[in-house]
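Re: Re: C-alpha cell formats

Sure, here are both.
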Amino acid sequence: TDTGGSVRVPAAFCGIFGFRPSHSTVSSTNVIPMAQSFDTV
C-alpha cells in the first residue's frame, strides 16, 4: 500500500516517480488496513 508515501517518497529521492493507483483499482481483499480511507494497493 502507499498510505504514507512509502512508494512515492523514496522514488522522488531517486529522481523517478512512484505510482499510487485510484481506490478500488486493485482489490484490497486480505489486506490489513492502516488507514482505510487512504489505503490503496
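Second one below.
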Amino acid sequence: MYMIDFHRHITLPFDSSNIDTYWYATTRVSEYPLYKQDKRHYHGYGYLYEENSDDIIQIIERHLKIDSLGYIGEVGIDKNLISLVSLEKQLEVVHSLTSLAIFYKRPIVFHVNASFELMEEIFTLGKGKITMIIHHYTGSVETAHELFNKGVYVCIGPRVWQKEMKLNRRIDELNIPILLETDYTRDNEHQYEKLLQDHYRWYEDKKNIAHTILVEQMHELSSIFQNSSINR
C-alpha cells in the first residue's frame, strides 16, 4: 500500500509513478486539459483568480459532468489577491462553487489566506453535505479542532516543519483526523517522492505512529471521501 498525497499540483509531462492516489489540484483553467490522459487519480478543478474567467462556475460544472474523478479545488480567498479581485467577489465565487460541489456531491478543497471567520457561511452551507478540506493548514491546534466541528478537515503540508512553525511543536495535541499533502508544484519525481516520504516520517515521529498504520489511516479517509462524494 502506497502513501497518499491529498494535494499535489499536476505537472507536465504527466506523472505515471506507482503512488497509489494523488489528489491532483489546479489553480487555473489552462491546467484542466492535463487531466485528459489520467484515468486513475482524483482531479481538482481549481481557480485562484490568476486568469480572468467570468464563467468559471459553468466551466467547472462542464468538467464535473463528464469527469467521475473530479472534485473542486483549490478555490478560496486570499487577501494578497485583492488587487485582482475583491474579497467580496472571491467569497461570492467560493459560495457558488460550494453550492456546485453540493449539487454534484463532490469534495471541495479551500485555499484560505484570510480570516477563517469570513468562510463561516460557506462552512455552514457545506456541513454534513460534502467533504470540505482546508489545504496547507498552518493555523493553531484550537482552530483546527473548531474547523473539524464545523465539518472541515485540515490538510497539513511540509511547510509546517520546514519553517518550524508553532503547529510543528504542537502537532501531537491534534485529536482529530488530519490529511497529509505536499503541495508539490514541480516535475522532479525523485525530489517529490523524497518530500512525501519525509513528510510522512515527520508526522509518524511526532505522533509516535507506525508507517503502515498512518498509510492505512490516509487510505481510509480517502476511501470515505470517495464513497460519499466522488463517483456518484
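Strands lie at 4-9, 21-25, 42-47, 70-78, 108-113, 132-134, 152-156, 179-180. The domain at 4-229 is CATH 3.20.20.140 (TIM Barrel).
- S.
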